[in-house]
Amino acid sequence: QAHISFKPTIDQQKVNPELDETLLNGDFVVRYDVKRDATAGDIQIVNGYFVHYFAPHEMPALPKNVIFVIDRSGSMAGRKIEQQTRDALLKVLRDLRPEDHFSFITFSSRVAKWKSSLLQATPENVASAAGFVQTLLASGG
To answer: Which of 4, 80, 117, 140 could bond to 109 as cystine, CB 3.0-4.6 Å?
Structure first.
């Protein structure tokens, strides 16, 4: 168990003491041990970086409104869109619950929306969205 509290003074936040502007001057470093039991939430470790997802067990899940904003410009060609983006989107779609709502906005040379409003995450809508995700191609600027 850990508690981290960071309360820099105004002087610690100033890049130049003679200026009235404030900006945190320095690095904020937290050393964190990721060797935890499975009950401590989900931990993903990739290439020396980690993300720790955790929430109280007794907390009920709240309905979500999710808008996926997807870069489908030419720089996303190949593995980035064909595997990484599609796989991530399909995984998140499977995790949506019926009380959630979602939609997609894509962008490259132009911005496009998938639907004109958020859709409820019914099995039919999620299946339709999965079909849309499979059609995503990288093109444009």
So the answer is: 140
